[in-house]
Amino acid sequence: MTQSIVLQIGQCGNQIGCRFWDLALREYAANNKLGLFDESFNSFFRNVDAKSGREILVGSGREKISSLKARSILVDMEEGVINDILSGPLKELFDLKQLVTDVSGSGNNWATGHKEYGTKYRDNLTEVIRQAAEQCDCLQCFFLIHSMGGGTGSGLGTFVLKLLADEYPDVYRFVTALYPSHDDDVITSPYNCVLATRCLTEFADCVIPIENQALVDIVNKTAEKPSLSKKGGSITNDQGCVGTEKERSSFDSMNNIVANLLLNITSSARFEGSLNVDLNEIVMNLVPFPSLHYLVTSQTPLYTQADVNIPLRRLDQMFTDAFSPDHQLIKADPKHSMYLACALMVRGNVQISDIRRNIERLRPKLNFIHWNQEGWKTGLCSVAPVGYPHSLLTMANNTCIRLTFSEVMGRFNRLYKRKAHIHHYTATDGMELSDFTESLHSLTGVVKEYECLEKQMNVSPPVVPRLRVSSSPL
């Protein structure tokens, strides 16, 4: 099997990353009763001798687990969250050599994270990443987790992405990017989002945008709690922490949803299945054009802290739910837009015939572009999530993402036309006004490309004339 490295950057990235590793260990514990370090473990973990610190190679897969170390790099310019992780129950899971921290934070400023801290810690980051890469036999993918509204997540996160593109151009770069709510309490988040999205368009192979507001709505609906405040919160910015126990529980639930998304995406890389989908197949099948690599995701069941109260869904209902607006991780309804391609990642005791039957049932309700009417990619991993017989993750390249980007651009323009708060950015060495205009131009280009494709909705495929063979003698 191949290996992947997870880079969790900023407060948001580290909180989600910590939850991912916790849930991953639970899955392995449920499916590896003998405690053996096999290829499945090796994809995301190293086995280290607890006494000598020497790495124990996977070999024949019969070696006992001694001390697991996550293939993870923790980065934050504020020590609080990482210190909490290192004093928590997973403290032994992370290699202290794989940490990059500072104390002052990025102040919700993309320029500080990208231009200042990126330059300051470039050599350190390069060395830490190199060490992690050299510990892999066959490195296939980097997973980056960070927010888009804060300074460290958006700024340093995209700096690391560019660094990976320069140093490891042949290794896939998947980014899970958390976009803030429209009424987020970080006033400069529209600037940070647009500046960071330009880097995602240029340097990522695949981006999974997730809207904070979609997570809020899912948690409120699933847990049947009073409405959760949309403002602030650990899921989308790099400062502050939620106050009450109820708020902390809500944000833990939001982190839990994203962590389970990552578990489902990586399930084929971690476990066997009759129709496993490799990570490179996701890029190959779902990204028809280089800059249009933003995937809209949904999953069922919806995992939150209250998931014990979720009734089991019938298999066909699970497929129906996955295409409903309530299960989307962005605030959009893909059924009203154009599908360029769609992947169904199924886990558990499901037959391939069940997947094909549901595709045929759902196909008439979905608008696929005329040149890719058969644009379905299916995956089936035999290992179900802990506590459930089956689950479904959908990943769609759909033109509805333009609505999310257009909303971000509108918020950006309201600030930028007055040049509000610009001086905080241009005061950073290397930051120019052209960074704003070029980033806006880049995002506008992406939106226009999706709009152009959406105009082809309900357009019949062109009639290609058949070759005629002349019957007259030569």
Give keywords:
six-stranded parallel beta sheet; 474 residues; 14 strands
How would you sum up this structure, described in words?
The protein is of the alpha/beta class and 474 residues long. It has 15 helices and 14 strands. It has helices spanning 10-31, 39-42, 80-86, 110-120, 122-134, 151-167, 189-203, 212-223, 245-270, 279-286, 315-322, 352-362, 401-416, 422-426, 433-454; strands at 3-9, 36-37, 45-48, 63-64, 67-70, 72-76, 99-101, 139-147, 172-179, 206-211, 296-300, 339-348, 376-381, 390-398. The strands form four sheets. It has a six-stranded parallel beta sheet with strand order 7-6-1-8-9-10, with helices on both faces. Strands 11-14-12-13 form a four-stranded mixed beta sheet, with helices on both faces. Strands 2-4 form a two-stranded antiparallel ribbon. Helix 6 links the parallel strand 8 and strand 9 (172-179). The radius of gyration is 23 Å and the shape is globular.
